[in-house]
């Protein structure tokens, strides 16, 4: 909040920060766990190091990257509510503050239910996309 102030930019940064480490750690783990036996085979076929990275290592790391993205997506949905509370514009935050002071739980439960339904729908859409587009890469984890 010190860098971006109160408003939308600080919310985006907080959600980005919640996702950054999860995706980067899973991507690193996927690259480290790429099958070493495939790399010399690519060299024997005449591939240089960039081609080996793009055609062997990255497809082998896709399951780890996708897993990291799904976990990070769940983490970002959990960080939406603190982002709203910490970095909300005072005019839009008055509804939450007034309902808290008056012990009205309906607005809070409605907002939490909305976030849960939205998270579920986005997760299902992401899984549908992965099943349709990245299905051939997802089989690498079961083969190796």
Helix content: over 70%
Distance between the termini: 45 Å
Which percent range describes the beta-strand content?
Answer: under 5%
Order of helix and strand elements from N to C terminus: HHHHHHH
Tally of DSSP helical segments: 7
Structure classification: mainly alpha
* Dominant shape: elongated
Uncertain parts = none
What's the pLDDT, averaged over the residues? 80
The main sheet comes to:
none
> What's the Cα radius of gyration?
21 Å
Number of strands: 0
How would you describe this protein?
The protein is mainly α. The chain has seven helices and no strands. It is elongated, with a radius of gyration of 21 Å. The N and C termini lie far apart (45 Å). The mean pLDDT is 80.
Label this structure with key terms:
144 residues, mainly alpha, 7 helices
Task: Detail the topology: elements first, then pairings.
Blueprint: H1 8-32, H2 38-44, H3 49-87, H4 90-101, H5 106-133, H6 135-138, H7 140-143
Helix pairs in contact: 1-3, 2-3, 3-5
Task: Briefly summarize what is shown.
With 144 residues, this protein is mainly alpha-helical. The chain has helices at residues 8-32, 38-44, 49-87, 90-101, 106-133, 135-138, 140-143.
């Amino acid at each position: 909040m010190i860098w971006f102030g109160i408003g939308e930019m600080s919310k985006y940064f907080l959600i980005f920060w919640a996702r950054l480490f999860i995706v980067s750690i899973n991507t690193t783990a996927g690259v480290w766990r790429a099958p070493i036996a495939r790399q010399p085979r690519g060299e024997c076929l005449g591939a240089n190091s960039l081609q080996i990275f793009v055609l062997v290592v990255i497809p082998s790391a896709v399951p780890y990257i996708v897993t990291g993205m799904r976990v990070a997506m769940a983490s970002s949905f959990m960080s939406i509510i603190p982002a709203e509370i910490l970095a909300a514009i005072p005019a839009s935050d008055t509804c939450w503050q007034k309902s808290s002071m008056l012990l009205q739980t309906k607005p809070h439960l409605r907002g939490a239910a909305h976030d849960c339904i939205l998270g579920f729908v986005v997760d299902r859409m992401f899984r549908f996309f992965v099943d349709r587009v990245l299905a051939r890469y997802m089989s690498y984890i079961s083969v190796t």
